[in-house]
Amino acid sequence: NSGDSYPIRTLEELGSRARDVLAANDIGTMVTAAPNLYPHMWSWDAAFVATGLSTVSVARALQELDYLVAAQWKSGMIPHIVFSDVPGYFPDVDRWGTRGVAPEGVQSSGICQPPVHATMLRRIVERATAAGGEDARLAEEFTRRTLPHWVDWHAWLRSARGGDGSGLLTIYHGWESGMDNSPRFDGPYSRVQPGDMEPFVRTDTLKVTDHSQRPSDEEYGRYLWLVQQMADVGFDDARLPAVMSFQVRDVFMSAIFAAASEDLAVLAEQFGLPEEAPQLRQWAREFRDGVDATVDEETGLARDRDVLTGEWIGPPTIAGFAPLVSTADQALLDRQLEIFEGPDWTGDPRLAFPLPASTSTTYEGLKPRQYWRGPVWPVMNWYLAHCLRRRGDRKRYHQLCEASLAQLMEGHFGEYYEPFTGEPLGSMDQSWTAAVALEWLA
Ligand code: 9WN
Predict the structure, then answer these.
(1) I want to staple 110 with a disulfide (CB 3.0 to 4.6 A). Which of 97, 148, 182, 235 is the partner?
(2) If you take atom 14 of ligand 1, which residue's CA is the nearest one?
(3) Do 109 and 97 contact (CB within 8 A), yes or no?
(4) pLDDT, tens digit, for every residue of 338-391?
(5) Cα(256)–Cα(177) distance, rounded to whole angstroms?
(6) Dihedral sign, CA of 117, 118, 122, 123?
(7) Where do the domains of the chain lie?
(8) Do 86 and 34 form a contact (C-beta atoms < 8 A)?
(9) Residue 2 — very low, low, confident or very high, per pLDDT cuts 50/70/90?
């Protein structure tokens, strides 16, 4: 990518650069999450990348989801990383220790990520159906063929991670949330005490040389210890609750699950599995209610819960807006939107663009350059806007679209952005950033 003129001057140029980024990150089998830092397929990245790709080629978009589905474990879990053969990312498949547990021939991690797939597939199907012809035919064939796999994925989440009646999914690693070092997890991680393990060398800090943009070494020690704890029990779902020293009921992931279960029910009715729809809708209701019940009366934000201490988790992070994704309660929705547009979030006049940061900009723990502790993540902007548009809120979709396009015109397709200066941070040419640029332009 890159070209030599920054910033970008026109929306046409933004689109063409975004397509170049995805093409450059395409190694044939997969579009890697980023060229250098993340040379593999990540589960939720792949779903966003697929919807972006579908603006260019429905066939290529479906191929991406196909490759991910092929890595599904026998249990139904879709792993958070499907490794390519490109070296340079740590922890790699050997360190994960999933060989023999993952399906034959699949190199994967042993945890999951938020289930945005059915929502993105529904989006792709709608786009392909509107286009008609070969696109519509391919999308229908793909959906009919893979529906049982997506249903298995949701059934696994519900049974292995969400069967305790709370209407919330439990995660055993911050990586599963996709918001790795969010202050949401500081309390639970403070109780993770790494024991004896193989020494390791991080590769992420060789690539993002300003280390203040990445998690600390202490955090990485805990991340690797949790991997070790899972590997020690062979990634056996039934044994994880007894051994894992990190267990959090993740409110944002639960909202995503509720919304995606609804989307999957719609696809099931349309494409030959109508008998699955009532169960999927039941899960959607259960988790929607579970998410609503976490809302703190005082702050109006949804909260995670530490399973091991039974405590609510307090810091004001973007995950607090989980009800924007899933709720059916109009009063709650109105209150959340008021907060979202208020001075602690997108209404903070100091912001470079009126977009939600990963923590409230008035939070005392805000670190505006560090990963999930403050920066603005383009993929989150689009996902939340997409959820609002699905509710019929075109006005807010367009507001977020305008602000996001203005942000992206600086031209680097950053992984995340400094909220007050608009500086791109982390990886450049990040695939899901390019993908959502294409969605904004579609
Ligand atoms: C660990 C790929 C992934 C995203 C996550 C983001 C980051 C990985 C890492 O990159 O996590 O899974 O090595 O930092 O936090 O959301 O899916 O883009």
Answers:
(1) 235
(2) 180
(3) no
(4) 999 999 999 999 999 999 999 999 999 999 999 999 999 999 999 999 999 999
(5) 11
(6) negative
(7) 11-324
(8) no
(9) very low
